[in-house]
Amino acid sequence: MADSRIALRLLMQLLIQFYLDVKFILVSPPFHRLQENLPFLSRTNTMDNGTDLPRASINSSQEKSDRKQKRYTVYKVVVKNSNQSWFVLRRYTEFDKLFSTLKKRFPHMALKIPAKRIFGNNFDPDFIKQRSEGLNGFIQTVMSNPELFKLPEVHSFLQLDNPRSEPDFFDIEDHNDRNNKASEMNLGPSGNPLAKPSDFAFQKVLGKGSYGKVLLAKHKSDGKVYAVKVLQKAAILKKKEERHVMAERNVLVKNCSHPFLVGLHYSFQTTEKLYFVLDYVNGGELFFHLQRERCFPEPRARFYTAEIASAIGYLHSLNIIYRDLKPENILLDFEGHIKLTDFGLCKEGMQPEETTNTFCGTPEYLAPEILRKEPYDRTVDWWCLGSVLYEMLYGLPPFYCRDIPIMYDNILHKPVQLRPPASPAACDAMRCMLWKDKASRLGAQRDFEEIKSHKFFESIAWEELDTKCVLVPFRPTVDGPDDLQNFDIEFLEQPVTASVCCDSESRLSVSVMEADDAFLGFSYAPPVPDDFH
């Protein structure tokens, strides 16, 4: 009887798979018809504002094997714009993930990808060809729709935020022939073979975290000093934090254009570690200076708050929520300007009207709606800004208590206590940012523009602030570009382990990189200058 049920179940699965395969053949037009019906394949695709969109298509696929000899297929997606060309390698699971994201956000759109195949040979040439054409049709649909194209998930999938010039790329087969190494290939924007641990002289430990450490390092070729964040892949995967790490990487790539955000210069990986090569900011954490001075005069607190608000406003303009604003994540550079760091809790793709509900952040700075496990939006960042301003003026977060349950109750129910020496304008700004109802909070209606227009900031010249043309109220004591006096001696005295500098496996084979789905697309190098201008 049991054997009959198993046989019946297998028969049903075969019928379902046959139905899905036939349905896909019936509803998916041949690739030549796609070319005829979609003009953007033969002409430059243009958005309503006249800006040229890049073009993307799948032009080949290859079969690979992971470390356990499990076979899979990668599809080469070639992306071109008016003067650049690059490619990315993507597996079917990545297409499926993007499809699910877009379908959830735009359920009314007729988006399709080939169905998953339960039975049959997934490596049959006819099946691979059919799947390639179906995935290519999906990419064409995405590229032809400005509403889809502008989404950060699409930009990340196609590596649109760090394109490189065409001369730096060549076909997979050509590259394998030149190097005579069948297991290595140029990964385009997803890989940077010139960046590896041995390129850097690691000098001191600057800090430690749950998944790794931050080290002072000097690039051997040009002598530039960086802070290199080194993370253990195993620890990240054990805690299932890979999505946060990839979100941090994506945000860091976009940070270089803002003066008050720590920027990314390179990211690369070995088989065991991830490396972020970041701006070295050696004026110390805001937390370090608050501990030493207890609180700041109001003009100094206003200056820092304005620069922080500018950075948060920029992230919001990219549809990113920061979610972890606290003095430990605010650095001072050698001139006295702030730089936000640590973007692991950032939430991407957050349109102004959208909400999320992940419980995350630091206890002292959690907004009431997060504690209530309600959907929340970008106003949580303005709550945190009000909390940091309060701490700069009074020495402690507004609802602080050593007993965390009591502190949470204070955040939910206790009115914020405001008193001199804070000015009436400062008190009003804090009261408005620390409003427990997010819909009534300062920034709820017009976001950063609403913050800027508050009377507490009426003395701030915002354009001059963003160009660092204003007089800083405090300049940290820094003797040089690699000065360490503003870092905790507890970390500085720790040895730099040899494993951090080891790059014997830093040039990853394709099978290793593509099998490690969690960190696909992690590596980054800055765009090279165009030769076409």
TrEMBL record:
- Positions with a binding annotation for ATP: K238
Domain PX per the UniProt entry, residue ranges = 53-165
> What's a single GO MF annotation on this record?
protein serine/threonine kinase activity
Which PROSITE patterns does the protein's record reference? AGC_KINASE_CTER, PROTEIN_KINASE_ATP, PROTEIN_KINASE_DOM, PROTEIN_KINASE_ST, PX
One Pfam entry for this protein is Pkinase_C
Keyword set for this entry? ATP-binding, Kinase, Nucleotide-binding, Phosphoprotein, Serine/threonine-protein kinase, Transferase
* AGC-kinase C-terminal domain span: 458-533
Q: CDD domains under this entry? A: STKc_SGK (cd05575)
SUPFAM superfamilies from the UniProt entry: Protein kinase-like (PK-like) (SSF56112), PX domain (SSF64268)
Q: What class of enzyme is it?
A: transferase
Could you tell me which Gene3D superfamilies the record lists for this protein? Phosphorylase Kinase, domain 1 (3.30.200.20), Phox-like domain (3.30.1520.10), Transferase(Phosphotransferase) domain 1 (1.10.510.10)
Catalysed reaction, written as an equation: L-threonyl-[protein] + ATP = O-phospho-L-threonyl-[protein] + ADP + H(+); L-seryl-[protein] + ATP = O-phospho-L-seryl-[protein] + ADP + H(+)
Ranges for domain Protein kinase come to: 200-457
User: Under which EC number(s) is this enzyme classified?
Assistant: 2.7.11.1
Leader sequence residues: none
| Protein name (database record) | non-specific serine/threonine protein kinase
Q: In which organism is this protein found?
A: Eptatretus burgeri
According to the entry, what is the taxonomic lineage of the organism? Eukaryota, Metazoa, Chordata, Craniata, Vertebrata
